[in-house]
Automatic annotation (TrEMBL):
<feature type="domain" description="Protein FecR C-terminal">
    <location>
        <begin position="329"/>
        <end position="395"/>
    </location>
</feature>
<keyword id="KW-1133">Transmembrane helix</keyword>
<protein>
    <submittedName>
        <fullName>DUF4974 domain-containing protein</fullName>
    </submittedName>
</protein>
<dbReference type="Pfam" id="PF04773">
    <property type="entry name" value="FecR"/>
</dbReference>
<keyword id="KW-0812">Transmembrane</keyword>
<dbReference type="InterPro" id="IPR012373">
    <property type="entry name" value="Ferrdict_sens_TM"/>
</dbReference>
<dbReference type="GO" id="GO:0016989">
    <property type="term" value="F:sigma factor antagonist activity"/>
</dbReference>
<dbReference type="InterPro" id="IPR006860">
    <property type="entry name" value="FecR"/>
</dbReference>
<dbReference type="InterPro" id="IPR032508">
    <property type="entry name" value="FecR_C"/>
</dbReference>
<feature type="transmembrane region" description="Helical">
    <location>
        <begin position="94"/>
        <end position="112"/>
    </location>
</feature>
<feature type="domain" description="FecR protein">
    <location>
        <begin position="191"/>
        <end position="286"/>
    </location>
</feature>
<dbReference type="Pfam" id="PF16344">
    <property type="entry name" value="FecR_C"/>
</dbReference>
<keyword id="KW-0472">Membrane</keyword>
Length: 397
């Protein structure tokens, strides 16, 4: 075990210093990604920690942060300050790698997409909540035009309902798909609603794809007619709109309209958020609310506050805004209250504060598949104390 630790120590150092050969870089990621068991790598980390108890941290905090950025960056030629994104790296083990770096001096950042996380034991009191909250999943209710409701998560795959010549199917991967028939029937309105702790994907009659976040709803016709395709949302949704220049696509939320021809974008319009945000990935969209309007280009974000003031941000953190649809909590300089609003919706819990809300900001990444206590443990690294009891998370002073 000591030989494996020494080897891992060597590989981290050479990778950080830029002297690692391609074979050594491959070996580093192979250790992270392909240990025989999670327990084996966890044991390695705890062994490293025991050694550090006697000899102190191997690296100072700033160097450790740089090392993690080096490991997570896209390729060796990129700047250490580049955005953290690498679809080729073994995300299954990055939680373990992050925990190792925490042990050797890493401070505020925890990046993880793994249910099982190794928690550092020094200066961090383990918290054992009396209760816990499980993560959300694919849950939604379909409300037909006649008022009939269908619980989608428990419904069998196949044909769920038929309205006129429009068929509504649930696929094997859990999607809701509308298949339009002839143009003889008049369209009627359907609504898909997700509860707190739920999310769902559907394909609209025109082929547009929508992913609904928790505590959200989407109302739409069973067939698009006329000069526009119009839907209404509450909460948050990610759209991949089918192109049809002759029939623009419009998304309405309260008194705001987002108009597109064919594009990928995210809308966050929860009532308990101070701002409505529209983030554009591809194409172009027009935002209007009667008193202000703006046109977005890819990478931009429109922010509309409760007073109706609209501003457009360049170089938006697009990955942060859409991480939820890929099963990730991702924060960048986020306050504890903003994080806990997301947690409340996803875990279907109430959030309370003992005293003032801690004025701290967090940057990090963790799977949405973890339990609430695991998400809260990430915040615990920065000194946030909490307890979980009876579907309630209390932030303590």
């Amino acid at each position: 075990m000591s030989e494996l630790y020494a080897r891992l120590d060597y590989l981290f150092n050479t990778y950080y210093n830029g002297t690692a050969t391609p074979a050594e870089r491959d070996e580093l990621f192979e250790i992270i990604n392909s240990s025989a068991t999670d327990a084996e790598l966890a044991s390695l980390i705890h062994h490293a920690w025991d050694k550090l108890d006697d000899h102190g941290p191997l690296f100072d905090r700033s160097k450790s942060e740089d090392m993690l950025m080096q490991i997570l960056r896209t390729n060796p030629e990129q700047s250490v300050a580049a955005p953290v994104k690498n679809n080729n790296l073994p995300w299954r083990r990055l939680g373990v790698a992050a925990s190792f770096l925490l042990l050797v001096g890493f401070g505020a950042y925890i990046y993880s997409n793994q249910k099982k996380q190794v928690i550092a034991k020094k200066n961090i009191a383990k918290i054992y909540p009396k209760n816990d909250a499980l993560p959300g999943g694919n849950k939604a209710i379909l409300t037909l035009a006649n008022g009939k409701t269908i619980t989608l998560d428990s419904a069998q795959n196949g044909l769920l309902a038929q309205q006129g010549t429009t068929k509504i199917n649930k696929t094997r991967n859990g999607q809701l798909v509308y298949e339009t028939g002839t143009n003889v029937d008049a369209p009627v309105i359907n609504t898909v609603s997700t509860p707190r702790g739920g999310q769902y994907q559907l394909v609209l009659p025109d082929g547009s794809k929508v992913c609904l976040n928790s505590a959200s709803s989407l109302s739409f016709p069973t067939r698009f007619t006329g000069k526009t395709r119009e839907v209404t949302i509450t909460g948050e949704a990610y759209f991949e709109v089918a192109k049809n220049p002759q029939m623009p696509f419009r998304v309405k939320s309260d008194n705001t309209t987002v108009e597109v021809l064919g594009t990928h974008f995210n809308i966050m319009a929860y009532n308990d958020e101070a701002e409505m945000k529209t983030t554009l990935l591809e194409g172009s969209v027009k935002i209007s609310n009667g008193t202000a309007n703006g046109i977005l280009k890819p990478g931009q974000q429109a922010v509309l506050n409760k007073a109706g003031r609209l501003k457009v941000l360049n170089d938006a953190d697009v990955d942060d805004e859409i991480a939820w649809k890929d099963g990730i909590f991702q924060f960048r300089d986020a306050g504890i209250d903003a994080i806990m609003r997301q947690a409340a919706r996803w875990y279907d819990v109430e959030v309370a504060y003992e005293g003032k809300i801690p004025q701290r900001e967090f940057t990090g990444r963790i799977s949405r598949n973890v339990k609430a206590s695991e998400l809260m443990s990430m915040l615990g690294y920065a000194g946030v104390k909490f307890k979980i009891e009876d579907k309630r998370i209390t932030i303590q002073q």
